[in-house]
Amino acid sequence: MGFINKLSTSYQQSIDEIHNGKPLQHMGMLFSERFQQLRIKPAPFPLFISPDKACGAAGISWGIINIFAHNNIII
Amino acid sequence: MKNTIQIKLFILLLLTVVSLGSCEISDPVKPVEEEKDPAITWIDETMRKWYLWEDEIPAAEKLDYKLGAEEFFASLLSDKDGKGEANSHYYYSSINKKQTASKGYHGDAYSYGFEFQYYNLTHNGSTLYYVLQVLYVLPDSPAAEKGMKRGDWIMQINRQPIPGNTLDLLNALDTSTPTATVFGLNDELPKTPTAKTEITMTPRMVVDNPVFVDTTFVYGSGKHRISYLAFNHFTAGRSDGDETFHNSLRKAFAGFKSNSPEDFILDLRYNQGGLVRTAQILTTMLAPASAMNNIFCRFAYNKKFQGARDSMLLDPRLIKDGTAGANLDLKRIFIITSNRTASASEAVINGLEPYMRGQVILVGSKTEGKNVASNTFSDDKYDWELHPIISRISNKDDFSDYANGFQPAYACVETAQDILYELGDVREFMLKQVLDYIVDGKPIDNGLRAMHAADMPELVPVYCSIERRGNDLIMGN
User: Fold this and answer.
1) How many domains does chain B have?
2) Taken in order B92, B93, B96, B100, is the CA torsion positive or negative?
């Protein structure tokens, strides 16, 4: 191994706060403020362009009023 | 002749009136109202119609319609849009010039073909040097051909140290022109940023298929069959209208089905989201068969559309027999996450939960918490494309309260591992934790042992290259 074979990381502070072994829950944020600052930006994925297609066309509907096309919805 | 004189008199009179009128218009007491830029008006109108928080857009008299398009767009946004505090807030809504809309995102893009994490290596609070670690290498890319591997440390670019800020780094890694670049690599972190080997690469068009690894392991003494999918973004294909990647996804699931997996591991650690209809297809293939034709997700729009109920189904019509997809009828699923896991990835987690009830088992770090969706608006007359947040997304149970992220059942990070094995390698740290847990019930190691020594160098994450998919975001304040 090189000079550093066991690294300390900034994840430590955050990961220490994660309750290990707990079942999946929809819980609030536990991450440290410091870690929030390091957090990445999510993707808007601006692609698959269509001029104002969102209005009017129907996507897959299921007996529900469906006023938007879903083809280009990005999440 | 008489008529000619009358016409001349009429013209003279007309000119006099026009002249007087002109004097009146240029009167400094009554300033001329400047015409609004039509593009700005279009942005204003589009946002007031579609933006999820349209009721928080400032009144017209409080807006500056002389701003440029980007600044004006930013002035419309709500603090509820995006994450972070005042000094570090970023918005999910974005605007960009048309010609840059799809550059560098998916399909065919100029690239070296690797993703990386950018670190500041510090010791006792002081920077030793900056360094990149390769997270994965795309097949059939310059990086793959030169033998670059996941876990490699990039110590130098063009024989210069890695820059100390993200902007300079991205300039050093500019792929907009096919210019040869020398990368200095090391397989470990030395005291100084020295390279053991060098590779020279020229960026070229690289296909980034999100179906990165699809395989089925026969694992452990009991020969447990466990299928594994590393899925890196939610994208339909190489360009608008192309379904290449959807078909790759369907084909992968047909392969899984033929192996009759007893368990399934979905690796979303590098997946920041994308098209919601891709998430719909994926979730349809993962969910219990009994969930078919039930709700995958619901959309709630702004108050102008509050009467509209809108949803997408777990729709078996999206998959067909043979190589065109398959429903695996899973009763439980393990999902590998990280703090980068976001958006459509979270919609899959949320969409499955009502049908698996506690058996959507997350292993990794808490996810981003993006429960809102955007759409693209453009007009042939203007150079801009808008990507405002237009809806909040929820699941069958109307649950959408995960803006703070999904908490993992089992904490686990790969960051500090001595070796980052390739994704899909059974020795790869996070995958191995899940495999051993499934077959032996072995407790999941969070990967943080021996990290509490005070006098250790520290790797501080600065930037991750998969963020480039979000680089058109407007940063707040």
Assistant:
1) 2
2) positive
Look over chain B and give the mean of its residue pLDDT values, rounded to a whole number. 86
**A8 band by pLDDT with thresholds 50, 70 and 90:** very low
- What's B314's domain CATH number? 3.90.226.10
Q: Nearest residue on chain A to B97, judged by CA atoms?
A: A46
B34: number of Cβ within 10 Å: 8
- Asked whether residue B184 falls in the same domain as residue B302, the answer is no
pLDDT at B76 over 90: yes
- Kindly tell me if the per-residue pLDDT of B285 is higher than 50: yes
* Chain A residue nearest residue B418, CA to CA: A5
Q: Are A54 and B377 within 8 A, CB to CB?
A: yes
Q: List, as ranges, residues 93-132 from B with C-beta within 8 Å of A.
A: 93-94, 96, 98, 101-102, 105-106, 121
Together in a domain, B235 and B347:
yes
Whether residue B156 is found in the same domain as residue B214: no
The secondary structure element, H or E, covering residue B71 is helix B69-76
Q: Does B391 touch chain A (CB under 8 A)?
A: yes
Lowest pLDDT segment from A26-35, B166-175, B298-307, B339-348: A26-35
- Give the CATH number of the domain where residue B179 resides: 2.30.42.10
Residue B289 and residue B307 in one domain: yes
Is residue B77 included in any domain, yes or no?
Answer: no
> Would residue B447 be called left, alpha or beta, if left means φ above 0 and alpha means ψ between -120 and 50 degrees?
left
Tokens standing for B21? 């009128």
Establish if A63 touches chain B: CB-CB under 8 angstroms.
Answer: no
Window 21-60 of A, Cβ < 8 Å to B: 21-31, 35-52, 54, 59-60
Task: Tell whether B287 and B403 lie within a shared domain.
Answer: yes
Which tens digit of pLDDT belongs to each residue from A10-43? 333 333 333 333 322 222 222 222 223 223 233 3
Do B160 and B267 fall into the same domain? Answer: no
* pLDDT at residue B218, as a whole number: 97
Q: What is the pTM of this model?
A: 0.81
Q: How far is A66 from chain B (nearest CA, A)?
A: 5
Domain hosting B352: range is 208-371+391-440
In this structure, are B248 and B152 located in the same domain?
A: no
Cα dist from B35 to A52, B40, B57, B288, B378, whole Å = 25, 11, 21, 58, 22
- Using CB atoms, which residue from A3, A24, A26 is nearest to B399? A26
For chain A, say whether B446 makes contact (Cβ under 8 Å). Answer: yes
Q: Is B357 part of a structural domain of the chain?
A: yes
Co-location of B267 and B185 in the same domain: no
Q: Which residues of B154-170 are buried (b: 16+ CB within 10 A; e: fewer)?
A: bbbbeeeebbeeeeebb
- Two tokens, residue B402: 């995960």
Contact with chain A for residue B375, Cβ under 8 A: yes
